[in-house]
Specification:
The chain is α+β, with helices and mostly antiparallel strands. It contains 3 helices and 12 strands, in the order ααβββαβββββββββ.
């Protein structure tokens, strides 16, 4: 018959192995002391942080099939508290927050034509000082320089569109980051902008 200590060890061992495996695959230690890295680390970059003006290329599953896109967060426009009050149903709840519009340029690099209503712009998030903001659905559709994804039809290889997303963030945020991830890859590409 097994005693309590043996049962506890049998239950704890798989958890410890899982923790060690996860640490080895994605920890910040940069590999072991012998200089080797795990296969997972070799297949995926440590960081998907991109410089201002640098684009990412990734496949994305649209209704029409897998499309390869070049993705570039061009800029963020930061509004005022007064702007936020006009955009929300309860202005008191928005006190201390400002709207931020991320302008993201997508270029169809191949894989087919997107017949209508592309989904590629739906995977954008805005972070302020490391914390995810609150999305304002539909707020960016009429922002200057932005296109509504519902107006985009027959998007062919070589064509580009700027699709925007609006989030509310604390007004005193110092750093704004635009995150975009393909559905098949949970690790986002990140562009960072200073909030002046």
């Amino acid at each position: 018959m097994l005693n309590r200590k043996t049962l506890w060890l049998r239950a704890a061992a798989p958890v410890a192995v899982l923790a060690l495996t996860l640490t080895a695959c994605g920890g910040s230690g940069g590999g072991n002391s012998k200089g080797s890295t795990s296969k997972l680390q070799e297949e995926k970059p440590e960081s998907n942080e991109l410089a201002t003006g640098e684009s990412a290329t990734s496949q994305f599953k649209e209704d029409d099939g897998k499309i390869t896109y070049s993705v570039l967060a061009q800029k963020v426009d930061v509004g005022t508290e007064a702007d936020t009050k006009k955009m929300v149903s309860d202005p008191k709840a928005a006190k201390g927050f400002v709207p931020v519009v991320a302008h993201v340029k997508y270029t169809n690099k191949g894989g087919g034509v997107v017949s209508s209503y592309p989904s590629v712009g739906e995977n954008v998030e805005i972070y302020a000082d490391g914390q995810r903001g609150t999305i304002l659905i539909g707020a960016a559709d009429d922002a200057p320089g932005c296109e509504s994804d519902s107006d985009i039809e027959n998007w062919k290889k070589g064509q580009s569109h700027v699709i925007c997303e609006t989030y509310m963030v604390p007004k005193d945020a110092k750093e704004l980051a635009v995150h975009w991830a393909a559905e098949d890859d949970g690790k986002p590409y990140i562009w960072t902008f200073k909030n002046a």
